[in-house]
Request: fold
Amino acid sequence: MTKKLLAFLLCLTMVFSFMVVSAGAESNNQITLTLWDSLSSDADNAAMNKMNALFMKQNPNITIERVVKTTDVLSETLKAAFMGGDAPDVIYGEAGIGDDGDYVKAGYLLDLTDAYKTYGWNDKLVSSSKDVPSANGFVWGVGNEIETMSLYYNKTVFDKLGLTAPTTVEELTQCLQTITNAGYFGLANCLDSRWYNNMNFLGTMLYAFMTKDEINACMNADASWNLDSVRNAIGTVVDWLGKGYFPDHPEVDGDQDAMFANSEAICYVTGNWAIKQMDSNCDFEVGVVPFPGSKTCADGGSQVNFVGGCYLINAKSANTEAALKYVDFLVANPETATIWAEEESKIPPYTGEYSANISPLLSKAIGFLADNSLSNIPGVNMWVASNTWDFFSTAGQNLAIGALDVDSFISTLDADIAKDVKDCSTKATFTY
Amino acid sequence: MAAAKLGFAAATHGGNVLNMQIKRAKYNRSQMWIGYLLILPAMVLFAVFFVYALEQAVKYSLMDWSGVGEMTYIGVQNYVSLLGDQVFWQAFINNWYYTAGVIVLGVFPGLILAYILSQPRIAGRGFYRAVYFFPRIVSAVIYGAVWKWIYDPRRGLIKVIMSAFGNNSSIAMLGDVHSVMLGIIITAGWTYFGFCMVIFIAGFTSVDVSLREPALRGGANRFQIFAHVDLPQIRPILDTMLVYTVIDSFKVYDLVLVMTSGGPNDASQILTYYIYKQAFTLDRYGYGSAAAILLGILMIVFTLLYNNSIGKER
Reply:
């Protein structure tokens, strides 16, 4: 009896094992891709879920498991995840060498050079999508959320004061003086504790004075910033600070968007990410022009572009092909391009045709990117390494409080670049 | 015979005593093992999250490491660099400035307020205790943001009040390198004195009030009674609060992050934020670890010196 019972139990165990294995075999056809992203705002979150739902509908054998984190938390936890061997298949985060260079050196990110050819991204996406997340022949990401810095202005006040949109920095200076004389703040920009306020504004001013060759030399060859164009650019910022074109106490954190929307400040140097709140909060006509170059700049200056986010693929992912297919769907697809543009007011990298119901301001910003007469170059935070990034993130505030002047700006910047060169973390010295 | 009986009795008695000792020893041993088992979970957690973490931090401090990939051994180079790092020492001085400020604005006002609110005939003392303690339960992120608005030179509360009195000038408390730490300290003191008040109230309620009578008969006034009768009785609590305040002040991070991010120009830089920045923003894990170890050593030295001085006093 005991032997019979034992035999029965053994058979039952065998049958059960076969069932489990079969279930496993069936589940082997199903792929689960894990995605960590920093799209935490309501609009971004909803749009990403929508795109994922579309992808899963078209690819029923692939499930996307998404984890949303803030940018800082994503950065901190990603390091631990890579070191622990359980990093996600796909990451949506920052694109610059300062953020991703160490992952590339450690072998954690897939080289997408071949993927760009295979999926036709070289033709289907804007060039900065590839230029920003790459160095020394290694392409570590697919850039998304193309952004451009422009000069937004209160057209109602401009008309009232008899001003026209400036075409040079020198004309802008005259406009700012007229605006200040009329009792407004010329600029809504604060040079405060927030890194993006410093970096975006200073980068825009620098590119208005530096030629393409000078920018290229600094970006790709670690050239010194001790240039007349840099002196003129920073000197102009210091001049504007002295003349009170910025809000009172620009070194203190301020609500730039509110100051512009309330018509306290008339001009605003910002990117297309601000368009959504302008459309909601500004009850005046908002004008926008490419940020003007300086008359002293031989080639008329360049426009600062950013890649707001970037898709990265884990080099150790077990589902590389599925991950590439997923990224291709997200970036090189008219459906997702429409979602990015309509629901998030963000410019997708897709250069193909797609229809989107967008605001006139966003339409103009997209037009600047497509304008071949403008020189569009990745902004400083897209290519600087850690020490230089740290410098630029407080340089504006330090200029505002007088802790930096033109000479010390240049000497400190060059010293920080030298540290990054020593760490082999610049575009020119990058090794992997 | 009697001697034999006595000897036998002694042996038996001695044997009983021995038996009892053996039983007691067995009982103590089993209790000992039970004790070890009961503290084992806590010891495991301590070993993992403190001992192991500390060992790793010391290891990283001897390395040049970005947080991912390989580490390069550089010996004490990080510590040498730290000794010459002006920002590190600025942060160290700021931490002591912050600590002194919190003691002046938090501990002593809390002590005085506790003394007042521990008197029996104060009407509404329960309400006052709750109101003064309330800031302590609010997150630093929230009260930091609120005080940042209060200090806003363009549209903050101070500016609005000044304008109401006809003064249109503005003070950039958090934008001036000379006043930024004071602004942060005032914010911290505002939340801290309520907490100190609660602790000291507990102390004052256990004071022996009968000791006041001889002092009263001797002609002592209220202040003298407070200073020479009541205060010495709560001195151990005061000493503990001072040590706790120093340690707690050196842990401040979120308040500075929200209000100033260590600026302007590192004028409000503090050690925890500096360590975080080195490790997680600038990807210098080795350097950040070295700064953290150095901070730990400095705090241990302070605690030993302080305890030593208190011991000598007593």
User: Anything to note?
Assistant: The CA atoms of residues 58 and 248 of chain B lie 23 Å apart. Chain B has two domains: 2-61, 85-313. The radius of gyration of chain B is 28 Å. Chain B has a mean pLDDT of 88.
